[in-house]
Amino acid sequence: MTQDYISCIRSKVGHDKVILTFAGGILTDKDGRVLLQLRGDKKTWAIPSGTMELGESTLDTAKREFFEETGIKVQATRFLNVYSNFEEVYPNGDKVQTVVFIYELAAVSPVNIANFHNEETLHLRFFSKEEIEKLDSVSDKHRLMLTEYFADSFALGH
């Protein structure tokens, strides 16, 4: 396949709603603050995550996407939850229902986020629970994931 999975699907269905599988992860610093990315497409703060490609596991997707969006190589320390009852419309008009697998992650080497940015990530920053609660630009889906993470209580059926 010469194009990525989303491009292939979108070439067939246009902007119509599709179900897509995503995976990502939560990485904390020594103070328990969570790393979030300021997304390039929506200009919102989010958990680093992305779309699964054909032939990938959700764990492989989480690790690949986390590296692409943060420059940090990670390993999973535990599986947290699946979130499947959210719909989104992207700035280009693409509609999706997301199925998101979230892992708790640990960096495999020291983390330096000071100068990282690319097309997908405008900025990286660690946030405390209290700081996240004050952010206006966090989607309901990511806010739920973060709330459950800080409570260390994960409900079924999202």
Largest sheet: 4 strands, mixed
**Distance between the first and last residues' Cα:** 32 Å
What is the mean pLDDT?
94
Count of helical regions: 4
- The level of helicity is 25-40%
Biggest sheet, strands in spatial order?
A: 4-1-6-5
The gyration radius over C-alpha positions equals 15 Å
Strand content: 35-45%
Taken in chain order, the helices and strands follow as HEEEEHEEEHH
Shape: globular
The count of β-strands is 7
Low-confidence stretches: none
| Class of secondary structure makeup | alpha+beta
Q: Which key terms come to mind for this protein?
A:
158 residues, alpha+beta, 4-stranded mixed sheet, 3-stranded antiparallel sheet
Structure description:
- With 158 residues, the chain is of the alpha+beta class.
- Helices cover 25% and strands 36% of the residues.
- The protein has four helices and seven strands.
- It has helices at 5-13, 58-70, 129-134, 140-151; strands spanning 18-27, 34-39, 45-46, 49-51, 74-89, 95-107, 121-127.
- It has a four-stranded mixed beta sheet. A three-stranded antiparallel beta sheet has the order 3-2-7.
- A hairpin with a 5-residue loop joins strand 2 and strand 3.
- The longest helix is centred in the middle third of the chain and has 13 residues, at 58-70.
- The chain is globular, with a radius of gyration of 15 Å.
- The termini are far apart.
- The model has no long low-confidence stretch (mean pLDDT 94).
